[in-house]
Description:
By secondary structure, the protein is an all-alpha fold. It has helices spanning about 5-40, 45-90, 95-130, 135-140, 145-185, 190-195, 200-230, 235-265. It has one domain (about 20-265). One of its GO terms (cellular component) is ATP-binding cassette (ABC) transporter complex.
Amino acid sequence: MAPSLVTGLARAPDLARRRVERALDETGLLCVTFLEGLRRTWDLRQWWGEFIEQCWFLARVTSLPVMLIAIPLGATISLQVGDIARQLGAQSGTGALLVAAMIQQVAPLASALLVSGVGGSAITSDMGARNIRDELAALEVMGINPVHRLVTPRLWAASTVSALLCSVVILAGVLGGYYFNVVQQGVSPGAFFDGATTLLQFSDLVVTLFKAWVFGFIAAAVACHMGMNCDYGPVGVGRAVNRAVVVTSIVVFAANYVITMIYQVLYPPRF
C-alpha cells in the first residue's frame, strides 16, 4: 500500500472529528445568535422601524415568486391525485387530498424556503457586506450591540412574513388545483369544496401557521449568523449566502419532521 494512502487513512478519523467539532461550534454560535436576538425583543423602540422596513422588503421580494410557485405546485398535486382518484372511482376526494397536502405540508415549507432563498440570501449578503466593511465592529465601538440592532428586527420580520406567505401559498395552490381538477378533469365544484373539509381540523391550520412562523425565525437566524461570520471579501459573502440557504433547508426539514411527529401524536389525523 502506498505511503500516501496509509497516511490518508490514518488522518481520516482526525479529519472527521474536526468536522464534527466545527459543526457543533457553528450550531452553538447559531443558537447564541438566535437567543441573543430574542433577548431584547421587549425593547420595541430600538427595532420597530427596522422591523417595518424588513417586513416590506421581504413581502415585496417574495410575494410574486411564492404565487408563481404555489399555483403550478397545486396544479401538479391536483393532476397527480386526480388521475389516481379517477382510476379508483373517488374523484370527489381530490379536493380533500389537495387541500390537506397544501395546508399540512406544502404551504409552510414553500413559504420558508422562499423566505430563505429570496429574502434570506439578501439578508446574508447585507450582513456580510456590513461585516467586511467593519460596520458591525463600528457599532460595537459605539456601544451598540449589532445583534440587538440588526438581528432582532430581521428575526421577527422573517417570521411574520413567512406566516403571511403561508396563507398566500394555500390560496394560490388551492386555486391552481381547483382549475385543473374542476375545469380540466370535470369534477363538480361542490364535490371539490365539500371534500376539502373532510380531512382537516382547525388545529391543522394553527399548526401550519406555527410551522411557518418558526421556519421564518430559523431562516433569519441562519442568514444573519452566516452573514455576520463570513470571510472577508466578495467570495466570502457569496459562500456565506450559499451556506445559509443550504443550512436553512436542512434545519427547516428537520424541524418540520419533529413538529409534525409531535402534532400527529397529540392530534391523530381524521379519516
